[in-house]
Each structure stands twice: as C-alpha cells, then as structure tokens.
Amino acid sequence: MGAASSNLVELRDLKVAFDGVQVLHGINLDVRRGEALGLVGESGCGKSVTWLAALGLLPGKASVTGSVRLQGHEISGGTRESFERVRGGRIAMIFQDPSSSLNPVLRIGRQITEALAIHRGLKGEAGKAEALRLLDMVGIPDPRRRFDLYPHEFSGGQCQRLMIAMALAGEPDLLVADEPTTALDATIQAQILDLLIQLRAETGMATVFISHDLGAVSQVCERVCVMYAGRIVEEGTTAQLFSEPRHPYTRGLFDAIPRIDGPRQRLIPIPGTVPNPKHLPEGCAFSPRCSRAVEACRSERPPLLSLSDGRQLACTRPVPAEERAGTKSKVAEEMLQ
Ligand SMILES: Nc1ncnc2c1ncn2[C@@H]1O[C@H](COP(=O)(O)OP(=O)(O)OP(=O)(O)O)[C@@H](O)[C@H]1O
Ligand SMILES: [Mg+2]
User: Fold this and answer.
1) 317 plus 181 within the same structural domain
2) Does 90 fall in a domain?
3) What's a single GO MF annotation on this record (predicted)?
C-alpha cells in the first residue's frame, strides 16, 4: 500500500516506442494529492504521449514499458477493464477537441447521467439531479432546459465545459487537461482556465495541465515540468522556473513569450526545430539548438539531477543562477503577479 506516500500518481521509467522508434525515454514524474502540475514543451516533445501511455489510451501498436502507480497500486500492465475503472473514476482526461469525448448523436443529459451511473451508481432522479448540478457547476446556463440538447447545439466553449462536466462525473482525484483551451478564442480560454482553477478549489482534485501557453500554466499551476524530445529537462515550482529558469531550453521558452506591456521587444525564438525521434542528436538532444552548448554536451547526455533549491535539472551548462537573479525577467514578474 502506498499509504506513506503523499503522491497520488507515480510514473517510473515510463517509455514509449512506435514501430521501434522510441519517443518517450523514461519519464519519472509524481503528481501529489490536490496539486496543479503544468507540463510544457514544444510540439512533439511527448506531453500527450506521457499521459496517454500512463492511462492505457495509446493504440495497440505502441510499446509501453515502465510503472504507473495510483496511490501506490500498480495500474500499468493491467486489464482493459481495470484501466477503464481508473480512467473514468479516479483519473479523468480531457482533450483539446471536445468532439473526441462527446457523442454527437446522444443528448447531453443522457451522456452525463450514463457516466454517473457507471462511475457512481447514480440512477433515475438522483442521476438527473447530479447531472444538473454538474452542468451548473461548469457554468452552463439554464441546465434544465439544455439537458435534452445535442452536442452540436452548444458553442465550442460550452462543449469544453460539457466535457469537463463529464470528466467530473466520476469525482476524479486527478484531472489531466491536455491543451483544453487551444481551440478557443482568448476570452473563452480565460473563462475555462478560471473554471479549472475554481473546480480544483471546490473539489480538491489534482490537475495536470498540458499547454504551450506558459502564461496559462503560471495561472493554473504551482509546479511546472518542462519536456524536450521525450525527456524531462527541468522541473520546479512555477515561481522558480519563471523567475530563474536554469535549463537553456526553459529559458528559451520564456524568451519566446510576448510581453503584455512595456516597450515592444523582439521575441527571441529558439533557433532550429524539435528533432525527429528517429534521429535524435548524440548527447543532450537540445545541444544543436543551444547557445550555451560545449563539446561535452554533444557527446554526453546529462542526467536529471536534484538541485539544492529543490528543482530538477538535466543540463551540463545551466544558465547561471546569479545571472538571472539580478535581472529577473519582466515577463516572469508580470506573470507571477
Ligand atoms: N499514434 C502515434 N503513432 C506514431 N507516433 C506517434 C503517435 N502519437 C504520437 N507520436 C509521436 O510521439 C511523439 C510525441 O508526441 P506527443 O503527441 O506526445 O507530443 P506533444 O508534446 O503532445 O505535442 P503537441 O504539443 O503538438 O500536442 C511525436 O514525435 C509524435 O509524432
Ligand atoms: Mg499533445
């Protein structure tokens, strides 16, 4: 039993390969009870695959190894049914595209009451009452009238809310939200973020928030994990990473964020592109794009190590701590306000 551990979920040495090409190279990650953890990194670095693998949602051709423990109980390598119980109940995942989770030919009320029946055994009037409460909770106006509508009768932002209501039906301990706002316009994005923050405060569920949007991550999460080319390269509190990124990649991600006010500055994009997992560079996978890289970086891959300030870092030539301390980036200050 994992009673001694405050970790809700523990991923250990999680690896994924598609057709013999490894895309995830041994992820070790803990999600603590009730915390909000952000997962960031450029497209293709393995953010979605990490959680799809952890929850048994990858297609059969994917080869997955490693351990996934939920409150100390191993859930990887289990049967399909055991995964489904975990997924619908203890851990729920929502995606960028609500149409992947909502059934277009079933009325919304029925979809939510079915989820309530499966996960919580609520039937009849009790199920309907709870479904209405969930719709109200996620901010669907006039839920009683909308109960019998079909998904296409809702806007994109409302569909995202419906998907969150479905995810909440099982009263999950963890909600994994994979780019839940990228398809929405800025105003609706902000509303959905507020909703996620509010729901977490009300229910105490942990949240894993996967996003390209570092601003959104800083609003929602206390801790951030940065991935590159199928590995974690830096992990720390949001305050640590925003005020003092040590990995040149983390720093590059922050330098590429537009500033809200102040003098207009050129954004500094990270040169180059994410490597193809089939042809990963020798040594540190980021070294060909890294302005700080030296010869050693191109021959030896630095392991992920814990620093004295509590963060984890995989870098041979990190951004010096002092250099950043005096010149705390304005972007970071704005974001942490
Ligand atoms: N079903 C699949 N079959 C083959 N390769 C896949 C599959 N799913 C993902 N990959 C590969 O795995 C790697 C990691 O993909 P993943 O979807 O996790 O990236 P991501 O970080 O979520 O990116 P994005 O920000 O674009 O969502 C990529 O190289 C991708 O091409
Ligand atoms: Mg993804």
Assistant:
1) no
2) yes
3) ATP hydrolysis activity
CATH number at 212 reads 3.40.50.300
The domain total for the chain is 2
The tens digit of pLDDT for each residue in 213-223 reads 888 898 899 99
Residue 127 Cα to ligand 2 middle (Å): 33
Q: Where does ligand 1 bind, in terms of residues with CB under 6 Å?
A: 18, 23, 41, 43-49, 59, 277
315 and 187, same domain (yes or no) = no
Mutate to test the pocket of ligand 1, among 48, 58, 93 (most ligand atoms within 8 A of CB): 48
pLDDT of residue 326: 45
**Amino acid at the residue 282:** E
- The structure tokens 């949602």 sit at 57
Q: Which domain holds residue 259?
A: 238-336
pTM: 0.89
